[in-house]
Amino acid sequence: MSQKVIPVTAEHNPDTDVACREIDKQERSLLGKVIDRFADHCRARSLFILHYCTGCGAIELPPTITSRFDSERLGIQPMVTPRQADILLITGYLSTKTLKRVILTYEQMQGPKYVIGMGSCTINGGMYWNSYATVKRLQEYLPVDLYIAGCMPRPEAIQQGFLQLIKQIDRGEGNAWQDYYRRYDQYLGNQQALFGPDWHTPTDVIAEAKHYNMLGEHTEGEHTALLEKFASAYVTNAKTNTALQYQE
Amino acid sequence: MNASASLESLPESLQAAFQELPNLHITETSPRRLKINLQADALPAFLELLKGRAGYIHLSAISCVDWDESNEFELVYHLWSYQVKTLVSAHILIPKKPGRYVSVHDIHTPAAFFERDIHEMFGLYFEGAPDQEPFILTEWYGPPPMLKSFDTEAYANDTWNWQDYQPKWLQEIEANGGSLVTQKEK
Questions:
Q1: How far is B102 from chain A (nearest CA, A)?
Q2: What is the block-wise mean pLDDT of chain A (248 residues), using blocks of 10 residues?
Q3: Which among A124, A133, A194 has CB closest to B162?
Q4: pLDDT digits over B69-125, tens only?
Q5: A137 to B155: CB separation less than 8 angstroms, yes or no
Q6: CA nearest A120 in B: which residue?
Q7: NADH:ubiquinone oxidoreductase-like 20kDa subunit domain: from which residue to which, for each copy (chain A) (predicted)?
Q8: Which of A228, B2, B84, B153 could be a cystine partner for A130, CB 3.0 to 4.6 Å?
Q9: How many structural domains does chain B have?
């Protein structure tokens, strides 16, 4: 997250000897679109999954990944760390406690990132629908790209889900992760309803939203106001520092 | 003490231990399994006695039952001896109010773990236990969830929204006059 403004034109920084041509806005957006389209096309063919295996769906993953069904044919491989993964695969039920860990993991991943909810439990609690501890709708807490229904889905179904996600990304429709930045206040509000008003993560999501240029109307709100009250000194200090640096 | 008949078939060390304490109600539920009902205040002495006399060094679990009608908790201490090779389950009853009992952590160290769990799930407080902080339910603000009076379904309804499930394939079927319910043949 670099906060330095790189001088592109002489107008921004007259002292610089870099005299770049001012890029026309329309031209820039068109070029950007082509590049994005190409990047999406490439990205869809090389995905790394981080599997969060607290649910029983984990048992379907070894055959999916290894020689029998071999998801590497689709360009999908398992990865062990969140920072190097594209897909967060939630394989089964989440309790309130594990949801906390999933959110922490998700926020560590780099964008663009995708979430697959696997199994009925992530959709509506599945067979634990009336449990006090099991989270019912995952998409209230994290932006979910795709659900794979089933209890448990067979490896074929998981492969089908992978293929569908690949198609979505290829078409440039796998943009659920941007929703987390644009409507962070709502997601945070749902998380706070479960974990209490002092819930906060080490990640400064609002600063990230600014960095990605995805600050939406609902990024900040009443719930993120609570964040400033309770968040650790590390996060709040970083915030004021950012504010100081952007002040002119 | 109406267990003299079954006592004879027990190993000698166990017989000797049982004769030390009055008011034991012993039932042999199956071979090498004994259910013993006793007064709550006699339990620590009972555990000490079995540990010293019959080698009952292993407390495998403490389970708790919530009896809603009589307003009592039933605690079951499952004990195992590697010499006698008979499972002893000691049953005691604790009134729900004030819902306090002594910790047996000083006799069997693993008891601390079970007592912490029972405190969390049933709200029964163990005096003298080293730690009664939340263990699994660290994100929990409601009443002890394993109580019979706790309605888990009502809690789920209050806390979570349900999925709005209207997939395209279902909409298409319904648009053509069909439904998920199988229709009877005419």
A1: 29
A2: 52 52 66 87 93 87 92 92 94 91 94 92 88 91 93 92 94 91 94 89 89 88 85 57 48
A3: A124
A4: 999 999 999 999 999 899 999 999 999 988 999 999 999 999 999 999 999 999 999
A5: no
A6: B163
A7: 53-164
A8: B153
A9: 1
What is the CA B79 to chain-centroid distance, rounded? 14
Position B176 in a domain: no
Residue A84 backbone zone (phi > 0: left; psi -120 to 50: alpha; other: beta): alpha
Q: Which two tokens stand for residue A134?
A: 């099991």
Q: Which of A124, A132, A137 sits opposite B152 (nearest CB)?
A: A132
CA–CA separation, A105 and A59 (whole Å): 21
Residues from chain A contacting residue B150 (CB–CB below 8 Å): 132
Tell me if B160 and A100 make a contact (CB, 8 A cut-off). no
pTM of the model: 0.79
B154, part of any domain? no
Judge if A147 and A225 occupy the same domain: no
> Do B90 and B36 meet the contact criterion of CB atoms below 8 Å apart?
yes
| Full domain range(s) for residue A206 | 183-248
Same domain, A91 and A203: no
Among B139, B152, B156, the residue with its CB nearest the CB of A195 is B139
Two tokens, residue B169: 């394939």
Q: Report yes or no: A14 at the B interface, CB cutoff 8 Å.
A: no
Cα–Cα distance, A223 to B2 (Å, whole number): 65
In this structure, the answer to whether residues A233 and A160 fall within a common structural domain is no
Residue B165, domain member (yes or no): no
Which among A100, A132, A194 has CB closest to B156? Answer: A132
Q: Is B132 part of a structural domain of the chain?
A: yes
